[in-house]
Amino acid sequence: MALFVQPWPIFLSINYLGLQACFLRVFMKIKLNNVCIFPLAQILNCVVYCIFVAMAAGLPFLNPYKSTDDADFRHGVNFAVAGSTALPTEILASENILSPVTNSSLSVQLGWMSTHFNSTCKTRGGWCVNQIKYLSFFLKQSTYCVEKLKNSLFMVGEIGGNDYNYALLPGKSIEEVKKIVPNVVEAIKNAVRRVIHYGAVRVIVPGNFPIGCFPIYLTRFQTNDTAVYDEDQCLKELNDFSKYHNDNLRRAIKDLKNEFPNVVIVLFTIILIFCFVMLYTGFDVMSLQKACCGIGGNYNFSLTRMCGAGLPVCSNPNQHISWDGVHLTQEAYKFMTGWLIRNMLHKLQCSV
What we know:
It is a single chain. The protein has helices at 49-56, 89-94, 106-120, 126-131, 135-150, 161-168, 174-178, 181-197, 215-220, 236-259, 270-280, 330-344, and strands spanning 3-6, 14-18, 63-64, 77-78, 152-156, 202-206, 264-268. The chain is α/β, with parallel strands linked by helices. It has one domain (3-212, 236-279, 332-344). Helix 1 (49-56) crosses helix 12, helix 8 (181-197) runs parallel beside helix 10 (236-259) and helix 11 (270-280) crosses helix 12. The two termini are 29 Å apart. The relative contact order is 0.14.
């Protein structure tokens, strides 16, 4: 996933949200039903960052931009696509990395965002602005969009993880995959720059997860060599790789802050928060690295029999961090988003 915007919210793997004085109620007081509201039960169970943030802000859930229904985008837009990459598929293909899920990479999502804003925020008209008579309407519409974006939250990411998944899981070495990290980070940096040029003044950029703790990687690279695991039984080299990406992203955000000193850009340090969730938030210690939906091996996960129809699901998903070996459970996302909300208000220069 990648772009999300909210009030309008956007999720690009961008999301965009209307902040409404940032957040109107304390996040952890939100009551949730364990019912999935999207047709995504196979990959999620099922509330993720952008939904929790919208709920905390007192906003409706974000509609996907490509929704076939008459979607309401007044409070935000979700441009994210499951399985999408930061780099265009043709660039990945040139590195012998196949993107098997979708061609809707970050650049495609940014194109959708441009189309959406261009159609919503009319700033120019045809033939002398339709002979002047509609000029006042266009000016009002332009001002309306500018004001909306000033009071909106853009979330660009998490994106880039699939670029690495599609390289590492088939067998490329970490050293090989490190070569594309600067390009992935540059794509994210350019995405942030682009939303700022549209008028964003508050942007959150999530880093990547510690993939060495995920069942899919623990299964794929399982070994009897205890030296490759850390004290939490995660794969050290893969987590070091995630840190390498996040360090590059941190430098890119520092550059963007220098380039746009009047824009608030916040790095969401996912690795730190994931570790806190894993160790200190009361999840079942016997299931920290086991998928809730799945079967097989030490991690309840199989690359050949992934979560889907006919596979068992754990009796209490709220005690698990991993839903399907690849994605987190709703409960894990709730804890992580709670930390994000509690710790980002002052950084976003919001008043409650």
